[in-house]
Q: What sequence folds into this?
């Protein structure tokens, strides 16, 4: 038992003082990253009330409980405003799990190792781009494990979305209308490949000027099958990605204007390219970054993969008017979350006036995201569930033999129109392609990430 040296609110006050002082090191009772490097119990960096939901709520909520409309007021300040409304008025239920003590469950293994190896080497140049301390492009891992500014926090979620050199996600998407019924259902594949900032120390194709290639293409239903959208990101975060699309009905690839990053990919879908990973646009096309607070938060950062016990990794649904609106979600008390605000300064016609991103200070990854419309009214949320892919004795492994880590589900809720998109990371989509975190034959680029591949995938 730890002898209490501080009053109950000490931890929260200390975290807010860090915002005022511009301090970057995560932790309250000690610096977090030395503990991560030593594989220590990372909850020791925080007072008890920031690592135990039972202590934080003075016994009113404990591990294993469910957050419902009957008790959500107790944890209102630990939820983003849309999540709170979902529980309070729409029948959403959230399961509470323990705060993670082991840092390895919050990262892909190789990404964590690169973050530890390269800690302290990332620098921002005069315009805000990230370079290594020797002037080269960023060499991989978390660039700013202890972000001192909003821009550094944004870099952590922008330079490597999925934290793998290559990832291919199979996705099943249900899009619900205001009546709570499924209006659309899609299967699609999402491919991400880092060109720079890679964990293997390479620069793919020698293209120092690029950051990533990313493609999404639909495999079902038949009227959407073959439609695809390819984004080519530049390393210079002031430059807009090149965006290409293919529609089978027209049988040609066309280039889209940048502002189409704020439009749905297909009818019924509520999320836009700009929403991806809480950092769907180059970070210097947004501005006025500021860390507005640090403090505890409830987030779905572990224990969310149930692939060992579910067909095709599909999750159960509940709540809403027809019992289909929300995925089962397992949240923990995250002791320190950075709340980041930014405005779309590079998009004069953007329908968004502000985004608020919730970032877990332990791994620098986003764990919540809400946007506001041009009037300043709350509009949408993009809430991820993250996890190691480990369900009891069943483990989905990466080629290195370690458990895979990734997003498991996303709830994208347009609260103004009450439309919900539910993205389930599945094992295999219609068409036969499966989720993978490797490119063993080195041919993923030609298969999925060129304009020529769009035509082939469209057929």
A:
């Amino acid at each position: 038992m730890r002898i209490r040296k501080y009053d109950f609110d000490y931890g929260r006050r200390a975290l807010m003082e860090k915002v005022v002082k511009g301090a970057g090191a995560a932790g309250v009772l000690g610096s977090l990253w030395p503990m991560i490097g030593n594989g220590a119990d990372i909850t020791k960096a925080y007072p008890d009330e920031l690592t135990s939901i039972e202590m934080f709520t003075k016994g009113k909520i404990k591990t294993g409980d469910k957050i419902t409309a009957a008790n959500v007021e107790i944890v209102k300040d630990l939820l983003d405003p849309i999540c709170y409304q979902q529980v309070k008025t729409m029948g959403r239920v959230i399961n509470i799990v323990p705060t993670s003590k082991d840092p390895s469950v919050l990262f892909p293994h190789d990404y964590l190792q690169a973050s530890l190896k390269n800690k302290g080497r990332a620098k921002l140049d005069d315009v805000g781009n990230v370079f290594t301390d020797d002037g080269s492009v960023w060499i991989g891992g978390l660039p700013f494990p202890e972000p001192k500014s909003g821009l550094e926090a944004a870099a952590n979620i922008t330079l490597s979305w999925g934290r793998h050199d290559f990832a291919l996600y199979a996705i099943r998407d249900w899009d619900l209308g205001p009546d709570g019924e499924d209006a659309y259902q899609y299967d699609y594949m999402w491919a991400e490949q880092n060109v720079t900032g890679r964990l293997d120390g390479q620069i793919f194709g020698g293209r120092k000027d690029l950051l990533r290639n990313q493609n999404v293409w639909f495999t079902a239903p038949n009227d959407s099958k073959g439609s695809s959208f390819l984004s080519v990101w530049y390393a210079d975060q002031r430059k807009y990605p090149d965006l290409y699309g293919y529609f089978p009905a027209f049988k040609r690839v066309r280039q889209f204007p940048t502002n189409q990053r704020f439009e749905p990919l297909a009818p019924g879908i509520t999320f836009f390219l700009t929403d991806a990973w809480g950092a769907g646009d180059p970070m210097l096309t947004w501005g006025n970054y500021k860390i507005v607070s640090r403090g505890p938060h409830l987030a779905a950062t572990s224990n969310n993969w149930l692939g060992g016990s579910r067909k095709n990794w599909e999750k159960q649904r509940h709540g809403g008017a027809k019992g289909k609106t929300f995925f089962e979600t397992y949240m923990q008390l995250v002791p320190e979350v950075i709340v980041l605000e930014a405005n779309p300064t590079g998009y004069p016609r953007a329908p968004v006036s502000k985004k608020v991103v919730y970032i877990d200070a332990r791994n620098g990854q986003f764990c919540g995201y809400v946007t506001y419309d041009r009037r300043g009214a709350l509009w949408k949320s993009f809430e991820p569930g993250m996890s190691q892919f480990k369900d009891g004795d069943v483990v989905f492994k990466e080629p290195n033999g370690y458990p895979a880590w990734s997003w498991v589900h996303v709830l994208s809720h347009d609260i103004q129109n009450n439309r919900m998109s539910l993205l389930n990371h599945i094992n295999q989509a219609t068409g036969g392609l499966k989720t993978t975190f490797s490119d063993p034959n080195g041919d993923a680029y030609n298969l999925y990430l060129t304009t020529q591949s769009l035509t082939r995938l469209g057929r």
Notes: The longest strand covers residues 330-343. The longest helix spans residues 10-21. The domain at 1-459 is CATH 2.50.20.10 (outer membrane lipoprotein receptor (LolB), chain A).
